[in-house]
Amino acid sequence: MITNELFSYIYTFVVTKSYHQRQIFTNYTKIMKKFFLMFSVVLLSNTILNAQQVDFTEYDLDNGMHVILHQDNTAPVVTTAVMYHVGAKDENPERTGFAHFFEHLLFEGTANIPRGEWFTIVTSNGGSNNANTTDDRTYYYEIFPSNSLELGLWMESERLLHPVINQIGVDTQNEVVKEEKRLRVDNQPYGNILAEIKKLIFKKHPYKGTTIGEMEHLDAATLEEFKEFNKKFYVPNNAVLVVAGDINIEKTKSMIEAYFGPIPKGKDIERNFPKEDPVSQDVIAKAYDANIQIPAIIGAYRTPSNKDRDTYVLSMISSYLSGGKSSVLYKKLVDDQKQALAVQAVNISQEDYGTYALFALPLGDVKLMTLINEIDEEIEILKTDLISERQYQKLQNQFENSFVNSNSSISGIANSLARYYMLYGDVNLINNEIDIYRSITREEIRDVANKYLKADERALLEYLPKKEN
Q1: pLDDT (tens digit, 0 to 9) for every residue of the chain, 469 residues total?
Q2: Are residues 165 and 284 in the same domain?
Q3: Most exposed among 102, 365, 383, 421, judged by the fewest C-beta atoms under 10 Å?
């Protein structure tokens, strides 16, 4: 499964909802909303301050696998997850799509799990499972009743130690991936929009490619190439194992040592990706999509790594500009001026670089450049004036609410623990990332907008309907 924030927004707000759906608020409703906003800021802040922190234990096995354990015995459920530090950026540029392909291939079976039986074993034991791939990592997980913890550990150790990579599995999953690409990309309205943006933003770094890759690369790959990819990246020293839920720490450690301890360490992986040159001028381009009837305009900027403090500020700027129907851009372009069907600012943060995208769909005959000019006008205000104290408190409220929700389930906690370790190098962000957002000032929001959101240092893409000949 491949996902990205910009596509998810487009699909949710453009494909699945009516273009003319508008909610009318009375003056009474507006007054009550202001009251509840102020009340909720106080209430949620107290909730955050009093919330129980996520306790965890972390250590390394002798083979280099990092282990993180979180014990929560409130419900008889356990999540077993492994995140591998391999994504689309790690691929041979002539063999793109391998990381996503392996997300599928490693469900085929192992030396001790017959082909096609993986999902049967999981469901017959009351569990569920899934996996997903990004440019930076691949994540597998199972959710079981806690009395099946050992089963989850065995299955993930089997995936790592005894995968069966043969031609029948490769051929089968090749067709599965092709169908996914047809369904989720080629035949999906706006399905290629992120790929077009990335080609403009990145010229050297492998982020310029797509997560799903090129199908002709998969067709041309040999069985030996797939085996070599597995041997290089699917090793314990390139992975983090997370077990979260109804567990006993010491018993779980013993089981982990029994199942994962004997797995041989792989060779250390060297990463030396080319650095991008600074964007020194605006880039203007057009792309065409036969699946759409309404054009789109996208302004995109290259931004820093997700570990950089500025990327947190950029996320706050996104919420300020388009986080909900009361946001600056939505009220201006959709509600008041009625020039746009939809508008969104999205901060796509990744391990090495990020992409900041401004997206809008015109209403009626409104010109695309009219939309981008109106958006730029609000960004210039943001770069000059401090946002109001009320707007600042609203942002704090939104991010604290998001922080609570991200760790509201055991599976969510497991994902966060793995991600913070693998992509941020700091597991305790699961507890203190909210402090970063709290420490961001209004002055910092203004300064970061000035630093990155420069109209003469961005890619401007007109994404247009492709008409039949």
Answers
A1: 655 545 454 544 444 333 333 332 333 334 334 433 443 343 344 434 444 689 999 999 999 999 999 999 999 999 999 999 999 999 999 999 999 999 999 999 999 999 999 999 999 999 999 999 999 999 999 999 999 999 999 999 999 999 999 999 999 999 999 999 999 999 999 999 999 999 999 999 999 999 999 999 999 999 999 999 999 999 999 999 999 999 999 999 999 999 999 999 999 999 999 999 988 778 899 999 999 999 999 999 999 999 999 999 999 999 999 999 999 999 999 999 999 999 999 999 999 999 999 999 999 999 999 999 999 999 999 999 999 999 999 999 999 999 988 888 999 999 999 999 999 999 999 999 999 999 999 999 999 999 999 999 999 999 999 875 4
A2: no
A3: 365
Whether residue 9 is contained in a domain is answered as no
Residues 49, 223 contacting (CB under 8 angstroms): no
Give the largest CA-CA distance in the chain.
68
Are 390 and 279 contained in the same domain? yes
Q: By C-alpha distance, which of 192, 190, 197, 211 is closest to 12?
A: 190
- Alpha-carbon distances, residue 230 vs 105, 118, 130, 235, 369 (angstroms): 10, 19, 19, 8, 47
Q: Is residue 439 part of a domain?
A: yes
Residues 230 and 102 grouped into a single domain: yes
Tokens for 254, please give them: 């013993």
Whole domain around residue 304: which residue ranges?
Answer: 275-465
- With tokens 């720490």, the residue in question is 249
Tell me, yes or no, whether 402 and 255 share the same domain.
no
Same domain? 204 vs 252: yes
Give the pair of three-digit tokens for residue 444: 């910092």
27 assigned to some structural domain: no
The C-alpha atoms of residue 341 and residue 13 are separated, in whole angstroms, by 9
Q: Which residues are CB-neighbours of 309 under 8 A, at least 6 positions away?
A: 436
Q: Strand, helix or coil at 55? A: coil
Per residue, what are the HEC states of 361-420?
EECCCCCHHHHHHHHHHHHHHHHHCCCCHHHHHHHHHHHHHHHHHHCCCHHHHHHHHHHH
Using CA atoms, how far apart are residues 241 and 66, in angstroms rounded to an integer? 6
d(CA 116, CA 101): 16
Question: Tell me, what amino acid is at 453?
Answer: L
Count of domains forming the chain: 2
- CA dist., res. 204 & res. 193, Å (int): 19
